[in-house]
Specification:
This protein is α/β, with parallel strands linked by helices. The strands form three sheets. Strands 3, 5, 6, 10, 11, 18 and 19 form a seven-stranded mixed sheet that branches. A six-stranded mixed sheet has the order 8-7-2-1-4-9, with no helix packed on it. Strands 14-13-12-15-16-17 form a six-stranded parallel sheet, sandwiched between helices. The two termini are about 25 Å apart. Its cofactor is Zn(2+).
Length: about 375
């Protein structure tokens, strides 16, 4: 089938810590690819960090939902008009990690832990003034159109607003999957969640859905604790200033958990100083999960591991997109998973600066850019 190119407004990083809105040319998909008309794109701290630190030109954005605009040769099971969520962790299906069932850490396609090169659609799919422009995390969702590999697509038929569907492919999946896939939380457990932003709220509601008996939310902001209770937290604790090692918080949690500590604790702040905090809050043989993706060096006091404690650092909630995304949307449709409530505010492409500002200043749980 012959397709024409599309002109596409997009947010592009200039490689110098700034970004601008430009008009791109998005070409037809080649073999094994699809072109998607993006209808909503979530804003994430990772987007801002990439603008500040990647030192190259690229189309910003890695959370998105929309409809298929064109289908390349050899693509099966996907048609023009299909509603889709984009997934940045694209499995190749045949590397060692994929064969072991760890498709989220694909050795060939992952932009985080693989070589990252093979996950992109063809280099000339997105151009500006005739020059190829890379797409963030293989996707580049802050653009009216994008071309991706068919393996980056998860089709859905449920009645879900695109603004809500768009956030499934990062923050929702990371929080939910860290509880369900990584920690495999047991019903009746006690849980601590450090940080009640967008990811933390998804940890909280995943713990609730999994049957946790007591969910203790911890944050520096009282308003966030109030919101955490709307998502399923049973208790809230304001973080204690200068309690960097969380020893005072540990004592408070022990008072609430029969003197032994929580069964599970999840760190969702991305603050390096709090990397070891979940270990302080769990009981012997409990499980601590570092959800936020801290990559800086952290010095641990090995006494925190006493005794038989487990510390997990999962990527993307160990996501299997073709299994997990439909399950999340089914939970939404049954009223168990809150998505609409996570989207605090929506923006246009023209006022994305306000969206980043609101996000960086903690005014929103999740912001979404909605395309007309």
């Amino acid at each position: 089938m012959t397709h024409s190119s599309r002109q596409s407004k997009a947010i592009v990083s200039n490689g110098k810590g700034q970004y601008e809105q430009v008009t791109l040319t998005v070409m037809p998909p080649q073999e094994g690819e699809v072109r998607v008309k993006i209808l909503a794109s979530g804003l994430c701290h990772t987007d801002w960090d990439s603008i500040q630190n990647w030192n190259k030109t690229f189309v910003v954005g890695h959370e998105g939902a929309g409809v298929i605009d064109a289908v390349g040769e050899g693509v099966q099971g996907l048609c023009v008009g299909d509603k889709v969520i984009l997934n940045w962790s694209i499995p190749c299906g045949h590397c060692f990690a994929c064969q072991q069932g760890n498709v989220h850490i694909c050795e060939n396609h992952s932009p985080v832990c693989g070589n990252g090169l093979c996950g992109h659609a063809h280099a000339g799919a997105t151009t500006q003034n005739g020059q190829s422009v890379e797409r963030s995390f293989h996707l580049g969702t802050l653009s009216e159109y994008t071309v991706v590999k068919a393996a980056a697509i998860v089709k859905f038929e449920q009645d879900v607003p695109f603004s809500s569907a768009s956030i499934v492919g990062c923050g929702v999946m990371t929080g939910y999957g860290s509880v369900v896939n990584a920690a495999q939380l047991k019903a009746g457990s006690t849980v601590c969640v450090i940080g009640c932003g967008g990811v933390g709220l998804n940890v909280i509601q995943a713990a609730r859905i999994s049957g946790a008996r007591k969910i203790i939310a911890i944050d520096i902001n009282q308003e966030r604790l109030a919101q955490a209770k709307q998502f399923g937290a049973t208790h809230g604790l304001i973080s204690i200033q200068d309690d960097v090692d969380f020893l005072q918080m540990r004592d408070l949690v022990r008072e609430m958990t029969d003197g032994r500590g929580a069964d599970y604790a999840f760190e969702c702040t991305a603050i390096p100083a709090l990397g070891s905090a979940p270990l302080a809050l769990i009981r012997n043989a409990g499980t601590a999960v570092q959800v936020s993706g801290i990559e800086q060096r952290i010095d641990f006091n090995c006494e925190l591991f006493e005794w038989d404690k487990i510390y997990l650092n999962p990527l993307y909630g160990k996501c299997n997109p073709q299994v997990d995304f439909p399950a999340l949307l089914d939970l939404y449709c049954s009223g168990q998973l809150k998505l609409d409530e996570l989207v605090t505010k929506t923006y246009s492409l023209e006022n994305v600066a306000q969206g980043f500002n609101d996000m960086l200043n903690g005014r929103i749980a999740k912001g979404v850019v909605v395309f007309s």
